[in-house]
Amino acid sequence: MSLLATLPVVIPMVAGILALLAVSRPRLQQAIGIAGAAALLAVSLVLMVAVSDGSVLVAAMGDWIPPIGIALVVDPLSAAMIAIAAATGLAAAVYALADPRAARTRAWPGLPPLLMFLLCGVCGAFVTGDLFNLYVWFEVMLISSFALLAQGGGKERLAGALRYVGLNLVSTVMMLASVGMLYGLTGTLNLADLHNAAIAADRPGALAAVAMLLLIAFGIKAAVFPLFFWLPAAYPTLPIPVAAVFAGLLTKVGVYAMLRVFPLVLGPEALGDTHILLQESLIWIAALTMLTGVLGAAAQSDMRRILSWHIISQIGYMIMGLALWTTLGVVGAVFYLLHHIIVKANLFLVAGVAERMTGSGELAKTGGLYKQAPWLGVLFLIPALSLAGVPPLSGFWAKYLLVRAGLEIGEYVLVAVALVVGLLTLYSMTKIWLEAFWKPAPETVSVRPLSRRESLAMLGPITVFALMTVVIGLAAEPVFIYAERAGLLLVEPAPYVETVLGAPR
Amino acid sequence: MKSGPILNTSTRGLVPLMIAFSVFLLWRGHNLPGGGFIGGLVASAALVLDGLTFGPGMIRRRLRADPVTVAAVGLLVGVIAGLLGWFAGSPFLTGLWWKPIVGGAELPLGTPLLFDIGVYLVVVGTISALWLALAERRQGGED
């Protein structure tokens, strides 16, 4: 089984290296990128089937048995996250075939190798069972995403990239400091071992300090209030396939890290009375993140900027699930995570098509898209309405779970915020719909139909993602059962801990 | 770039010495201070010295391949070193050893050495690529 758990890291790594070796042949590079992402997707589906009963796969790197060595651990949550990361990567790689900016760019070393190394970092963060190793994968992610951000240059992009890398380095330092403190307190960095050691350490005060440091470190990655301002500066400047991957995946790795580390290591048993402090901060962060994100979006008039701000508000929902600290809340957060990546990446892809056809993402300079391409309107409405939480799409169930979890423990204010933010999301999505699709095109703008090649490469991934959104909405039960297994393992990690520590090898 | 006879002569003597020393560091690195990273840095220092004295073209001639390709090959060697353990039925990155007797003494060769060679190539390729990007841009600006 160790083989299977290692593949999510090895496949993108090898594909990235091969794509780097093919640096002088862009076509071959693209083929390698698509093949790598497809292989990763296939492996992740096998993994999902293998762990769908709530079991846990462990691989001890270098045959050093945990907690001594680094363990790669695949549980239902990480398997699903890898699958969605691979799907997003595949969509971006296919979509990039139609993007002249990505294909023709002479910028070194091209999109596919960096995309693969980014996926390697993301998947590594999803499978690692070691806190320091998590830091290492964050770095792999950070370096590749920085290269992707800076590629092609331009003043605005470099400014955004610098802000991104600067804040993320702060986050990294915080994380290293907290890793050091945890090691000093417990003498281990294996997450499963930490679960026991943190309780045994009996130092709630010191652990609360660690929790706060980690909250800031992961919070910067996840772009929560008040540490989000790098995101709207960096994302709108990216080429669309890269923006879709960033929007779908990067911030969610921060959320994933919170979901993984906080309940496992810094739960109520370890933190004692101070746990309420962590929970209160999470509740405030969740509410303010939802609100600032959606209000920021309402003030924008450019498609990419609106969508970027909405990433922030959506992160708030996931934090809300964790902040409630009940099983249903965490399950809701997991469901939200899975649904959100698909929807968000898809919206960016649609925005890219709209920009291609009208020549601009400024809402004032677009229009007439529905007349020219009614199917694109439908493909936009599906993820847009799902984002706002309109039934029967996937977003409705995600929000329903969170709202219900909130009502169960009487967090009425947080629930009210969540519902109002859903409404405001609908407002922003309606704005894009009315401006870009419904109103007639301004006289200065001529809407250009897509070429055949463009339709295939761009609309293919969009259609698949839209279908997935509908399917998750209509067949929510299997997804919910899966999310429930994943969430349960987060809240009651005894099987996880036992499997990792008892790993034969 | 202008360089005097002293620099020219000493570079000719120093570069082979530095390369030899870097290989020595790489070799002893598994259990003693040294290793692929340090060895690679010393080798890159030698290449950069060469480049400073005789111009960036000298680095390209010495490497014979594009520095990025050198780095990519290094990465590949590292992954293969990890995968070898895997093919032998152990987890990824497990160290495998092969200890032939050479001239009466045991010569320990293993996948950790292969991994270190990969690191060495990555460091040499990356540092040369960085240095060349800066040096060749400056040269272009002067022309």
Q: What is the arithmetic mean of pLDDT of chain A? A: 88
Give the domain tally of chain B. Answer: 1
Question: Per DSSP, what share of the residues of chain B sits in E-state strands of 2 or more residues?
Answer: 5-15%
The structural class of chain B is mainly alpha
Query: N- to C-terminal separation of chain A?
Result: 9 Å
How is the largest sheet of chain A built, in terms of strand order?
Answer: 1-2
Please indicate the count of domains of chain A: 1
Largest interface: A-B, 18 and 19 residues
Tally of DSSP β-strands of chain A: 2
- Number of helical segments with 4 or more residues of chain B: 5
Q: From N to C, what is the helix and strand string of chain B? A: HHHHEEEEH
Largest sheet of chain B: 2 strands, antiparallel
| Main sheet strand line-up of chain B | 1-4
Q: Please report which band the strand proportion of chain A falls in: under 5%, 5-15%, 15-25%, 25-35%, 35-45% or over 45%.
A: under 5%
Order of SSEs of chain A, N→C? HHEEHHHHHHHHHHHHHHHHHHHH
Radius of gyration of chain A: 22 Å
Parts with pLDDT < 50 across at least 5 consecutive residues of chain A = none
Spans where pLDDT lies below 50 across 5 or more residues of chain B: none
Report what the structure shows.
The complex is a heterodimer of chains A (505) and B (143). Helices cover 77% and strands 2% of the residues of chain A. With 505 residues, chain A is mostly helical. Chain A has one domain (2-496). In chain A, strands 1-2 form a two-stranded antiparallel ribbon. By secondary structure, chain B is mainly α. Chain B has one domain. Chain B has five helices and four strands. In chain B, the strands form two sheets. A two-stranded antiparallel sheet of chain B has the order 1-4. A two-stranded antiparallel sheet of chain B has the order 2-3. The model of chain B has no long low-confidence stretch (mean pLDDT 84). The chains are: A mainly alpha (505), B mainly alpha (143). The A-B interface holds A 2-3, 6, 10, 13-14, 17, 20-21, 23, 59-63, 108-109, 505 and B 66, 68-69, 71-73, 75-76, 79, 82-83, 85-86, 90-95.
